[in-house]
């Protein structure tokens, strides 16, 4: 132990120095020896003057085996703390004429290393008729607890031991978290930690490399907000949630969608973490890209898992086994050992491969190898490999491309259209204009009541013409159509008119939004949401409202939502000149508008979960369908002025007739 100044205090006599007292002191010392930890605590005593109280704490530290420093001034206290990083600090708060204890506490708390330090305030004893003072000012100043003045070494010793066994040990655990996170940061498996409500709280660098997101883009988001792959079976998410909510692990093959839009097959292990109250507080997902040359798989504890029963792949049943607490079979998260796999590993690896077996072309194998290489690559290399994958996933590997579009973008677009068929193909010869997109790729919809407060506050102004759709785009992470559509369709009673549930409407809105190209700078879902807002604004005007019935309003809102769905970012003239398949299909007449209307109905009736028309009668559907088609086709710019003139006449003539009647 060391003192900044002053002599070593004499051991105080607490009971007159009799034999009984000495015997108790010996017992205390023996007890202290038994309670000492391998790494002894470091205590700082801040007392302006030496007195019986400071001596008692000094000897209490000696008895407990704690290292101790004594500081006499605020400056020396801070300097000593910065040098030694004490676990416990005791500050004398009895005499404010020497220094302000709250000021010293704030100075220490302002330093970088004080977050795990327990600071104790020594307060004077209250008079018999004095009211017990509040501890709130001390807590606000940064103190952890208080100690009422007592110069008994035993009392000081007991206080220090309680702190050491309580707050200090808790702080040790918190400090150990830094080591855990260091391990996670260098782990080669992708790790994702979410709350009990499936809100992302942590992802490691391996996850960033695998999925293409930066950590700041994910923290605080719900898993439902991230795009889903369309390669998983429809009930897989429900199956996983059912399993992990029971406190069981889930492990199996899962397809995820990267930020770039590409699908990646993963071996996923999800572990529920039991916390306070015996309830599930977090979920930890460990993910690894599933490739042919990836022979290392997770070991599965036969009695501690919930995995896909591959022998019954048609019904995709799951096996739920009880948790076995006395064994740990999971391989270390950071392990990359090259030991020969066990029989169980080989068996599971074979079954997993059978489950995920597909007919692969050589280019697919190349892509899988690059995906595997991304896992252990630096961020810059991983980003470059993402670009390589984007190029490889097209079938235009040997088609010429213009080197630069900066000089004359219009000429470049025209020449580029003549060099290709106007449509960018994906691997597997699937055009961008995909007519088979299923709803399983979409995020699980949220209810209007569950909309985040910041977005809900924005939507409160949607009836105003000044409503900023770009702010909504940023707040919803480029999903404004779903949120705005829910609000507007609800206010117009669309669900009641169509006799459909809100869940069906939400699914339909998300399906439509997913089929807008976010890569388009203008014809994207934000543009659709903007047109929907303007349409709703005009429909609320009294002169327009009096001329339309509810079917017309519903048709207008639906048409506004779908009027540019799957827009390729090119004009009708471009597609016709390029000889695209769409132009040929629709005979060079209203090519895009016909495609928007046709695809909207194809997508809607394809899946019952998103079919908003399934409950209306046939005649009403035919009338509504024709109205929607007419409105979408009317967005062709070559007939713009014709339609505007007809619309103005349809509004003005009835109003003029009413005015003439009233005047006569």
TrEMBL record:
Which keywords appear in this protein's UniProt record, sorted alphabetically?
A: cAMP, Hydrolase, Metal-binding
Q: Name its co-factor(s).
A: a divalent metal cation
PDEase domain residues: 447-664
| Pathway per the UniProt entry | Purine metabolism; 3',5'-cyclic AMP degradation; AMP from 3',5'-cyclic AMP: step 1/1
Q: Which InterPro entries match?
A: HD/PDEase_dom (IPR003607), PAS (IPR000014), PAS-like_dom_sf (IPR035965), PDE8-like_REC_N (IPR057304), PDEase (IPR023088), PDEase_catalytic_dom (IPR002073), PDEase_catalytic_dom_sf (IPR036971), PDEase_CS (IPR023174)
Q: Where is this region: Disordered?
A: 309-346
What EC number(s) is this enzyme filed under? 3.1.4.-
Q: Domain PAS, which positions?
A: 183-247
SUPFAM superfamilies, alphabetized: HD-domain/PDEase-like, PYP-like sensor domain (PAS domain)
Question: Enzyme group, top EC level?
Answer: hydrolase
Q: Does the keyword Cell inner membrane apply?
A: no
Manner of cofactor binding, per the entry note = Binds 2 divalent metal cations per subunit. Site 1 may preferentially bind zinc ions, while site 2 has a preference for magnesium and/or manganese ions.
Q: Which family does it belong to?
A: Belongs to the cyclic nucleotide phosphodiesterase family. PDE8 subfamily.
Q: What is this protein called?
A: Phosphodiesterase
């Amino acid at each position: 132990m060391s003192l900044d100044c002053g002599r070593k205090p004499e051991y105080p006599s607490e009971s007159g120095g009799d034999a009984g007292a000495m015997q108790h002191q010996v017992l205390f010392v023996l007890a202290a020896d038994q309670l000492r930890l391998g790494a002894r605590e470091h205590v700082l005593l801040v007392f302006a003057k030496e007195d019986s109280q400071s001596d008692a704490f000094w000897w209490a530290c000696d008895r407990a085996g704690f290292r101790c420093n004594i500081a006499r001034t605020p400056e020396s206290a801070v300097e000593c703390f910065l040098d030694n990083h004490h676990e416990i600090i005791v500050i004398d708060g009895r005499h404010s004429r020497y220094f302000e204890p709250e000021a010293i506490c704030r100075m220490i708390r302002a330093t970088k290393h004080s977050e795990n330090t327990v600071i104790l305030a020594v307060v004077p004893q209250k008079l018999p008729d004095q009211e017990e003072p509040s501890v709130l000012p001390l807590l606000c100043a940064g103190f952890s607890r208080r100690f009422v003045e007592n110069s008994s070494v035993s009392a000081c010793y007991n206080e220090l031991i309680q702190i050491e066994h309580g707050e200090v040990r808790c702080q040790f655990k918190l400090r150990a978290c830094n080591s855990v996170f260091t391990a996670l940061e260098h782990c080669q498996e992708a790790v994702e930690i979410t709350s009990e409500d499936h809100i992302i709280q942590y992802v490691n660098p391996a996850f960033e490399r695998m999925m293409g997101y930066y950590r700041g883009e994910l923290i605080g988001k719900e898993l439902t907000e991230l795009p889903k792959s369309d390669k998983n079976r429809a009930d897989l998410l429900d199956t996983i949630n059912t399993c992990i909510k029971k406190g069981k692990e889930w492990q199996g093959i899962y397809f995820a969608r990267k930020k770039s839009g590409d699908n990646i097959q993963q071996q996923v292990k999800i572990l529920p973490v039991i916390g306070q109250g015996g309830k599930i507080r977090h979920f930890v997902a460990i993910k690894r890209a599933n490739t042919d040359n990836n022979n290392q798989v997770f070991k599965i504890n036969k009695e501690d898992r919930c995995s896909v029963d591959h022998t019954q792949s048609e019904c995709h049943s799951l096996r739920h086994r009880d948790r076995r607490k006395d064994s740990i079979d999971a391989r270390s998260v950071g392990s990359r050992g090259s030991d020969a796999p066990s029989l169980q590993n080989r068996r599971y690896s074979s079954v997993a491969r059978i489950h995920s077996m597909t007919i692969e072309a050589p280019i697919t194998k190349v892509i899988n190898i690059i995906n595997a290489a991304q896992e252990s690559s630096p961020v810059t290399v991983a980003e470059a490999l993402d670009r390589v994958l984007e190029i490889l996933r097209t079938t235009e590997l040997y088609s010429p491309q213009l080197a630069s579009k900066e000089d004359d973008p219009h000429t470049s677009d025209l020449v580029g259209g003549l060099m290709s068929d106007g449509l960018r193909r994906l691997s597997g010869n699937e055009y961008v204009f995909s007519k088979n997109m299923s709803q399983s790729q979409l995020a699980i919809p949220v209810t209007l009541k569950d909309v985040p407060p910041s977005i809900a506050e924005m939507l409160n102004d949607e009836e105003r013409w000044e409503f900023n759709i770009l702010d909504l785009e940023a707040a919803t992470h480029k999903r404004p159509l779903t949120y705005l559509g829910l609000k507007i369709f609800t206010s117009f009673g669309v669900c009641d008119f169509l006799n459909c549930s809100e869940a069906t409407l939400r699914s339909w809105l998300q399906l439509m939004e997913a089929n807008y190209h976010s890569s388009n700078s203008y014809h994207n879902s934000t543009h659709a949401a903007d047109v929907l807002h303007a349409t709703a604004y005009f429909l609320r005007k009294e002169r327009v409202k009096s001329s339309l019935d509810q079917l017309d309003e519903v048709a207008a809102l639906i048409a506004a939502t779908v009027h540019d769905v799957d827009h390729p970012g090119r004009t009708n003239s471009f597609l016709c000149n390029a000889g695209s398949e769409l132009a040929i299909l629709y005979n060079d007449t209203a090519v895009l508008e016909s495609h928007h209307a046709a695809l909207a109905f194809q997508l809607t009736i394809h899946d019952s979960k998103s079919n908003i028309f399934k409950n209306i009668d046939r005649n009403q559907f035919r009338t509504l369908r024709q109205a929607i088609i007419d409105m979408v086709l009317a967005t062709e710019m070559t007939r713009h002025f014709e339609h505007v003139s007809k619309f103005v006449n349809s509004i003005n003539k009835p109003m003029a007739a009413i005015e003439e009647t009233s005047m006569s």
